[in-house]
Amino acid sequence: MEESKINGEKGKFSPSFVDIQNAEVVEPPPSIGMRIWRVFKKNILIVLLILALCLGVGIGAALRNVEPKFDYRQLMYLKFPGDMLMNMLKMLILPLIVSSLISGLASLDTRASGKMGGLAVAYYLITTFAAVILGIILVVSIGPGYRGGEANRSGSSKIVNTADTFLDLLRQCFPDNLVEIAFLKPVTTQEEVVPEEETMTTAIMNSTVSTMTTTEMTTSNTTTTPAPKVYKPVVGKASGMNVLGVVTFSIFFGILVGKLGEKTKPLKDFFDALNEVTMRLVSLVIWYSPIGVLFLVAHKVVEMENPEQTFQQLLYYFLTVMAGLIAHGFISLPLIYFLFVRKNPLKYIAGVAQAIFTALGTASSSATLPITMRCLEENNGVDPRVTKFVAPVGATINMDGTALYEAVAVIFIGQMQGYDLSIGQIIIISITATTAAIGAAGVPQAGLVTMVIVLTAVGFPTEDVTLILAIDWLLDRFRTAINVLGDAFGAGIVAHLARKELEKMDDIEFGQGEINNGYISSTLEEERL
Questions:
Q1: Domain extent for 91
Q2: What is the pTM of this model?
């Protein structure tokens, strides 16, 4: 009786043996220092990239005061670690685009890939056009060209024909040689045509110029009116990867691989494996990216001739572009994402922060593509099938920041030169800037090339593009970051809107796996009996 009473009292005040076994161990809440360490450990690459950007500016500013000034060779040595980063990232562009697009599209059925493609294209067109309209409203309202002083012109621009440039984009989509697309792309250049009569006249003048007096030569020079120059288009090959050709071929190839089913399963497995290996290589490269970004930024700061004068002359233009990029990247795009997905866009932006800072350092959305895909899948949980399809295409044709920048820059040039833009010209600028931005390559300062198309469309002199060369390198980094952010939001929206098709694909694959497992199990059972 006493023992049972004691046991009973023990049961009241202490847990039994069974209770101890089933009890859950409750860990004490982590300290503030532990929480900070966990956040730092999770975002260590972002922290390193921010430090690299700040140190790059600081080191570059300090080296500007070094006497004697850096010569070309020393600048080349300073930029070398950054060149290594750009080389490694560019090296991965071709295998990444090919393997990700083919692997992603091969795993989709035709209906799902068609819907995803339609959603992606609609998103690209809507956001790019919205960015252009926002830029036009800001530049017309602020009028930066009427406030700042005229910038110094430097350099020259080539003659560009708008129609020829659009035809070049179509030629690049359908290349004539699959090997050449890795290092060459078709480009139309304008060559001056010298008429035969002018050649003969020049020869005659050269033969008689010795008999002319000084007065006669002066009279001849003052009365002769130079004939307008005539140019003819010449289609040739220029160095540089034909990204549009790679994307087009990979899309059609991947769709057919998925449509043929079991016949092409070995081919699909090959590209799946290639994609996995490429992403592992990306993981190795991104740990080197802070070092490369540091030296790229430091080199640019040292290379600038007169940063104080530059920013004074183009301050209002710079602020107008930055206001547009910030408004589009952190108001328009997050609002569109929230309306469709109904999730916190700020958390989504934090997930791709590493890709945004990498874009600031490299100024190339194509070079940032490997990191963008990694952030989307690992941090934001976007379906890899969507990432493999949307991200490479977006890095090629989705250029929100570039479109906004081109619209602002063209109107700014018109304001500085005293041109009065009509409503029709503004509409032409909006349409042309949208289409030109879609065709812009995802490489540093590609927007300068497509801007010539917009200048030509509204009748502005193409050499006026040199007005903004002084700070284009800096704006290029910010607009590239917005391009990457737009690609990331596009992947999240497409993944959400196409989730039902992806779930159906998962159900079909799961059901097929059950059938296969049942067949294998029954076969083994028959063999055992």
A1: 46-156+248-512
A2: 0.62
